[in-house]
Amino acid sequence: MTGLLDGLRRIVGESYCLTEAEAMERYLVEERRLFRGNAIAVARPADTQQVAQVVALCAQLRVPVVPQGGNTGACGGGVPQAGAVVLATERLNRIRAIDTANFTMTVEAGCILADLQQAARDAGCFFPLSLGGEGSCRIGGNLSTNAGGINVLRYGNARDLMLGLEVVLPDGRIWDGLRSLRKDNTGYALRHLFVGAEGTLGIITAASLKLFPAPRERQTAFVAVTDPQAALELLNLTREITGDAANAFELLPRNGLDIGLRNMGGRDPLGERHAWYVLLELSSPRASGLRAALEEVLETALARGLVLDAAIADSETQRRELWRLREVTAGGHQHQEGGLIKHDIAVPVSQVPEMIRRGTAACEAAIPGIRVIPFGHMGDGNLHFNLVQPLGWEPQRFFAERERMNRIVHDLVHELDGSISAEHGIGLLKVDEMARYKAPLELELMQRIKEALDPLGLMNPGKVLPPPAQQR
């Protein structure tokens, strides 16, 4: 133990090796407080070389390493287990280069996502990854969980925005795959192994990311639709009329909006209440008549009986007000309404209405009075299928039903050829679900990769992959 701490202090400096309980506290508890960890120390290296030295030291002493970015994850992926060293990437926060001719930026893993968005804007470009925690989450964590967010419909997940990586491997060697090429067909695409791996194969220390022309026009509408099936038809109509101009298509239920407005404030922009809404946004890098295209979409949808009412933002202030309705729907039921069981799932886009219909019915049959709030990125099939406790229940009574409700939701997702994790990762929370739903051959292949790159099993142990004994 002494040799480990002395070594860490030599590498990162006395003040950046935390061992006191109070100083380590924020690194041990994840945002939702579902998990609490324990660690020998928290190391805060300043650069890739220091990361490599910390990892090499831990490998030599057989000490597990748990990488951590902004600690904003929803599944406990950054929570350390006893006897581990937390490696916090927050000091790796430099933007190394922005190439506006190549439309790329090279950044370190500890950069806060919102800072990268601003740097892209300052360079006259656009970095489209955008999600609720962007003011505190860090790009290394976004890549490690393959984060999605509101713009996946047009731009893809974090994986699709990454061109190259710099990674510290479990033995402390540095793999320099930090290229900015659009095309490289020289063998295996190694960089993709580390995206979505949640630090179990190595630690991402830097990334080359895609930039895009900055939008010069945005048109945003808050649309009341008859039901999720109508929302699906509206999505297809939007694509038909506008091509790839739609960058966001968010589905919001009335019950979630009501709870959000009650707890977080705000106002409904439409005159009457409706059961379902879509937040639709079009964008273009040139002033290209998007308002006329949006109006054509809505007029056609209204004539077909898909749309009941709509409000179009006439200013940036109004646009932000409409987007805030998405925020309150997502955040208004998090703590104020008692117990909450969250599901981050994805199904084929065509199956979203079926998932909502059957999933809601099954959950309501299982617990009368339960409040089912399915919302999210309908454009890519990713729903946050959240369950709020019945009124009058104690939270602990509701949490005791977590496994039963997970089984109802995830069994249906599996039946519909979906995924039990769409953008939040696996972490500790869903390891058992991986064993239940992942095909045996897929688990075997992932286990082989893990053993090949991390034969000592020291990189973020216990996350993503279930123990071999659990694998079917």
From TrEMBL:
The protein's required cofactors: FAD
Pfam families: FAD-oxidase_C, FAD_binding_4
Coiled coil regions in record: none
Domain FAD-binding PCMH-type: 35-214
Domain of life: Bacteria
Family matches, as InterPro entries: FAD-bd_oxidored_4_C, FAD-bd_PCMH, FAD-bd_PCMH-like_sf, FAD-bd_PCMH_sub1, FAD-bd_PCMH_sub2, FAD-linked_Oxase-like_C, FAD-oxidored/transferase_4, Oxid_FAD_bind_N
GO MF, one example: FAD binding
Record-level GO BP terms: respiratory electron transport chain
Keywords, comma-separated and alphabetical: FAD, Flavoprotein
Family (UniProt): Belongs to the FAD-binding oxidoreductase/transferase type 4 family.
Protein name as it appears in the record: FAD-binding oxidoreductase
Species, as recorded: Ramlibacter agri
